[in-house]
Amino acid sequence: MKKEVPFIQDRTEAAAPSPGMDRREFLKRMGLLGGGLVIYGTLGDLPAEARALRTGLLGSRVPSDFNAFLRIDPDNRVTCFVGKIEMGQGVITSFAQMAAEELDVAYESVEMVLGDTDLCPWDAGTWGSLSTRYYGIFVKEAACEARAVLLDMAAERLSCPRNRLSVKNGLVWDRERPAIRVTYGALTAGRIIERHLSELPRLKPASAYTTSGRPFLRRDAIRKVLGKARFAGDIRLPGMGHLCHSNIFVAARARDRDPGKPQPVPEGRRRTRHHLHGRRPGHGGI
User: Fold this and answer.
1) Helices 91-103 and 136-158 sit at what angle, rounded to 10 degrees?
2) Closest to 61 in 3D by CA, of 13, 105, 103
3) Which of 135, 131, 95, 87 is nearest to 111 (CA)?
4) Which of 69, 135, 236, 263 is the least buried, fewest Cβ under 10 Å from its Cβ?
5) Does the domain formed by 11-225 have CATH 3.30.365.10?
6) CA distance 13 to 19
7) DSSP labels for 130-169?
């Protein structure tokens, strides 16, 4: 097996925020995009093996802050941000299942935002069957850590030990006082919450799955059947031009062909391979 070549050598470069925006500003921005959950803090001396490695071409720029992947709004809706795109492999469904599973929320409450470079965390690209089996671990980690922080917050809100709490569909309650309960949305209340965990939680074992591994109608199925699904080729932006690719070959008629001599192409019918015809917006094209 070939050794993975690091995408960048300097790990501090990988963790650095984009120019003109520090980490706090980035997190505030994420929190203001609809007013949901943003939790951040210094992970400090947490063991490296508790988190999937962020190294090499595929992982060196993937953020470890789970708020880059998730937002929980006051109405208990969850938005999951992933840099991958949906191109028929079903990740718009599978990522929602992963997030719902680790957060303990209803699958239907998870909305997916894919491939939006303004909102989604960095990704190396959608290729090589890496979305579910590789990038999925980052989504699961983010949801798992968010759940742990939310349970800490719920224990404080409900004035009970954390080990007495149960959670289902984003609703947390005290098992000894079932009427005492609170939702994830009520806990976040649109605030930016600064908190860190002393220890990263373990992912849910497969034996406890209730959403992952279960059959769900693919979220893009109906749009595809009705012809309403939009792909990269369907995108139209203001002022966008179009190019038409020509690959035309003109051959002389068989009776005029001399195998020993090249046949000229009549003037006006000549085309150059890979010739591009520019089209102004609104003037056709492909």
Assistant:
1) 30
2) 13
3) 95
4) 236
5) yes
6) 12
7) -IIIIIHHHHHHHHHHHHHHHHHHHHHHHTS-GGGEEEET
With bands split at pLDDT 50, 70 and 90, how would you rate the model's confidence at 255?
low
Is the pLDDT at 90 greater than 80, yes or no? yes
Confidence check: pLDDT of 278 > 50: no
Q: Which string of DSSP letters, residue by residue, matches 97-138?
A: HHHHHHHT--GGGEEEEES-TTTSPP---S-TT-IIIIIHHH
Q: Which has the higher per-residue pLDDT, 44 or 216?
A: 216
Angle at 96 between CA 94 and CA 99, to 5 degrees: 110
Q: With b meaning 16 or more CB within 10 Å and e meaning fewer, what string describes 1-31? A: eeeeeeeeeeeeebeeeeeeeeeeebbeebb
Here the tokens at position 82 are 């992933």
| Cα(95)–Cα(140) distance, integer angstroms | 9
pLDDT given at position 22: 62
Q: What is the pLDDT of residue 63?
A: 86
Q: In whole angstroms, give the CA distance from residue 247 to residue 239.
A: 26
Do the beta carbons of residue 34 and residue 46 sit within 8 Å? no
Place of tokens 């059959």: 215
Domain ranges in the chain are 11-225, 236-286
User: Which of 4-13, 39-48, 159-168 has the largest mean confidence?
Assistant: 159-168
